[in-house]
Specification:
The complex is a heterodimer. Chain A is an alpha/beta fold. Helices cover 42% and strands 8% of the residues of chain A. Helix content of chain B is 35%, strand content 20%. Chain B is of the alpha/beta class. Chain B has twelve helices and 14 strands. Chain B has a seven-stranded mixed β-sheet, sandwiched between helices. Classes of the chains: A alpha/beta, B alpha/beta. Chains A and B meet through helix 6, helix 7 and helix 14 of A and helix 3, helix 4 and helix 5 of B. The complex binds thiamine diphosphate. Thiamine diphosphate binds next to strand 2 and strand 4 of chain A.
Chain lengths: 392, 336
């Protein structure tokens, strides 16, 4: 849908984020191209990576961010109405997800966690598919190969290894696509993520590690996970890194392009820490007031990723009433489509639980399925059953 | 037919798989120049290159997790876990990812990963080098688990495992690596006995003795010793541990009326319990007596000077056969 729509920012092997360059080493400043007030500020190294972004494209980045915030609000509402069992909101992380998601090419492959619905949106996911899993109607929302994005991962950090392995495969194939993996700040403590970085560096695999540091891992603050800036961890593995303002869609776009370009040209892995904030709860089952200071939320609300682009568009005179109405209509339309898809989703069949455990028949399972289907059949036609006990 | 060791037979099977399918890729620690600590991959890197036979950093979760990513990309990774006791760091990736991705993606993503595990004791190793972790995996749906007991099976079943679209745990009895046997390398996979099937190793009429992996040889020796005493033992090599080919075991038990199961792994929750329960369910009225298990103890694998007490040997198996037959045995006089 949106892949590569923005075009490439050009190649620059000696660009920012190189381990030899000013941003490759220890504690880096946050890369920022748009201030919280919506002022476009220049950056000597990153500007060239977004110089092709037209006003129209800036407007469409804004539109996508508004759309996924709307999707997020709608899904939260669906959960509150009992239509979804659970929902992990991405509120506050729109710039990280749209900025990086739109930098990708169609043949790049994403391995994400459960929170990257904005990235899935960029990959062109069917809107109903986004909520399928959370409604409990399927174990995966989509076929990974239709949008080149793996089934969201619940095991924290496991997907970083899958991306690295996939990237090793890309390398073997002699292709120039890239595997991109998304994970949180908490995940960086997991062994898998650290092992993934070892493998990625050793084999110089074309993989981008995209960490959304949203400051919290459920109730645990990032300082409990890491004593140093997360981006600096990569250095120890020999992986160049960037620390970018995750609430600044242009900065994220630029940084992701740097990383993708390096990977495509044989430069190996890159680690991006997008510094952002999870403004909502961890999931709809969480209560952040138990562990989080209200002032903190206020501080971050002032850095809202959507308000920021909006202010920039306003400064540029691009925020017409027509445009705003168009964006609102688009957001309402996607929300409506998702809601309808959610509510009208067909119920799964009982015997579906036995499907796809194996790709070829399995005598143990076939016997269990046979026995269970006989058991179900013993109730007769469920429509004729008069009580909960059925035929008994 | 060629005489070759068990290790060589696997090597030759791996070689054929590498030759036949460019998507097959071997990964593991020391499998390249060294040829693996047991030399099972000897010479393969030299002939297929370091992109087909990959020496990996020392990280089992990563070996397994990157194999998942490679499978996503259409590769068929064959990973070597250096020793049984080192599979645990990779456990999460195996049971949560390798086993479940096909199910989770409704069949869209195949995980044709073969996990080679040298397993079992009897070679005088230090701790973590002699374990029998198969029950963890037979309990995990989505995985196929096989164990080989002779060079011919080792040769054909490794190729069958690699060709399978499902993930396969392939357990190699390390104390048999140097045993020699006849191997027909030209055996066609489509006509060879399926890796899902159990095999009757020795026919008999008095008692069914079920074994797999390293104990098949011991069980066969026990059957020969029993024959000297006039007892006819039918030995079955399970070959597939998940699923177990109960049809073959059931047919045997219907004939003999008695069942003994033996494995090196500890008893509680082990595969023997599954075989005993399932056979009891399937042919209760054909059993003359309760199934008997002759297994390792529920202890951490002992230091090597005592490992032979833990491992079921010929005499312990024969004692089990006596129990099944109601002959005088070490537990005579005990109720239950
Ligand atoms: C291996 C594992 N351990 C624990 C959990 C439970 N869990 C789910 S989300 C989460 C916090 C993750 O935080 P982070 O990596 O920062 O990502 P975020 O949710 O903030 O995006 C935890 C502990 C899990 N899913 N997997």
């Amino acid at each position: 849908m949106f892949t590569d729509e923005l075009g490439k920012g050009g190649t620059n092997a000696g660009g920012p984020g190189n381990s030899a360059g000013p941003h490759g080493g220890a504690a880096q400043n946050l890369v920022q191209l748009i201030t919280p007030e919506g002022e476009r500020i220049s950056h000597p190294e990153y500007d060239i990576w977004v110089q092709d972004v037209t006003d129209e494209q800036l407007c469409s980045l804004y539109e996508d961010m508004v759309a996924i915030r709307r999707i997020d609000t709608e899904a939260t509402a669906l959960q509150r109405q009992g239509e979804l069992a659970l929902w992990p909101p991405l509120l506050g992380q729109e710039a990280s997800q749209i900025g990086s998601g739109r930098a990708l090419r169609e043949d790049d492959f994403v391995f994400s966690s459960y929170r990257e619905n904005g990235v899935a949106y960029c990959r062109g996911v069917d809107l109903t598919d986004i909520v399928r899993v959370w409604r409990g109607n399927a174990s995966s929302g989509w076929d990974p190969y239709t949008i080149n994005m793996a089934t969201p991962q619940i095991i924290i950090g496991a997907q970083t290894l899958h991306a690295t392995g996939y990237a090793m495969g890309i390398q073997n194939d002699g292709a120039d696509s890239v595997a991109v993996t998304y994970f949180g700040d908490g995940a960086t403590s997991e062994g898998d993520v650290n092992e993934a970085m070892v493998f990625a560096a050793s084999f110089q695999a074309p993989v981008v590690f995209f960490c959304q540091n949203n400051q919290w891992a459920i109730s645990e603050p990032v300082r409990l996970q890491s004593h140093i800036q997360i981006a600096d961890r990569a250095m120890g593995f020999g992986i160049p890194s960037m620390r970018v303002d995750g609430n600044d869609v242009l900065a994220v776009l630029a940084a992701t392009r740097v990383a993708l370009d390096r990977a495509r040209h044989g430069g190996g892995p890159t680690f991006i820490e997008a510094v952002t904030y999870r403004m909502g709860p961890h999931t709809t089952a969480d209560d952040p007031t138990r562990y989080r200071d209200a002032n903190e939320l206020e501080d971050w609300a002032a850095k809202d990723p959507i308000a920021r682009v909006k202010a920039l568009l306003d400064r540029k005179g691009l925020l017409s009433e027509d445009f705003e109405a168009h964006v609102q209509a688009k957001a309402d339309a996607v929300a409506r489509e998702m809601r309808a898809g959610c509510i009208n989703m067909p119920e799964p069949e009982p015997l579906d639980i036995f499907k796809h455990v194996y790709s070829t028949p399995n005598s143990w399972l076939d016997r269990q399925q046979d026995h269970y289907s006989r058991y179900l059949a013993s109730f007769g036609d469920p429509a004729e059953a008069t009580s909960e006990e059925g035929a008994r | 037919m060629t005489q070759m060791t068990f290790a060589r037979a696997i090597n030759s099977g791996l070689r054929k798989s590498l030759e036949n399918d460019p998507k097959v890729i071997l990964m593991g620690e020391d499998i390249g120049a060294l040829g693996g600590v047991f030399r099972v991959t000897d010479g393969l890197q030299k002939d297929f290159g370091e992109h087909r036979v990959v020496d990996t950093p020392l990280a089992e979760a990563a070996i397994m997790g990157t194999a998942v990513g490679l499978a996503y990309r259409g590769y068929r990774p064959v990973v070597e876990i250096q020793f049984d006791g080192f599979i645990y760091p990779a456990f999460d990736q195996i049971v949560c990812q390798v086993a479940k991705l096909h199910y989770r993606t409704q069949g869209a993503v195949k995980m044709p990963i073969t996990i080679r595990v040298p397993f079992g004791g009897g070679i005088g190793s230090p701790e973590h080098h002699s374990e029998s972790p198969e029950a963890y995996f037979t309990h995990t749906s989505g995985l196929r688990v096989i164990s080989v007991s002779n060079p011919q099976d080792a040769h054909t079943m490794i190729q069958q495992a690699i060709a399978s679209d499902d993930p396969v745990l392939y357990f190699e009895p390390k104390r048999r690596y140097h045993d020699k046997g006849e191997v027909d390398e030209s055996l066609d996979l489509s006509t060879a006995l399926s890796m899902e099937k159990a095999r009757v190793v020795t026919e008999g009429t008095d008692v069914t003795l079920v074994a797999y992996g390293p104990l098949v040889k011991t069980a066969r020796d026990a059957a020969m010793a029993a024959a000297d005493e006039g007892i006819s033992v039918e030995v079955i090599d399970l070959r597939s541990l998940a699923p177990v080919d109960f049809t073959t075991v059931e047919a045997s038990v219907r004939k003999t009326g008695r069942l003994v199961i033996t494995h090196e792994a500890g008893q509680s929750g082990g595969l023997g319990a599954e075989v005993a329960a399932s056979i009891t369910e399937r042919c209760f009225y054909h059993l003359e007596t309760a199934p008997v298990r002759v297994t390792g103890f529920d202890i951490p694998y002992p230091y090597s000077k005592l490992e032979m007490h833990h491992l079921p040997g010929l005499d312990r198996i024969l004692d089990g056969v006596d129990r099944a037959l109601g002959r005088p045995n070490s537990l005579s006089g005990l109720e239950g």
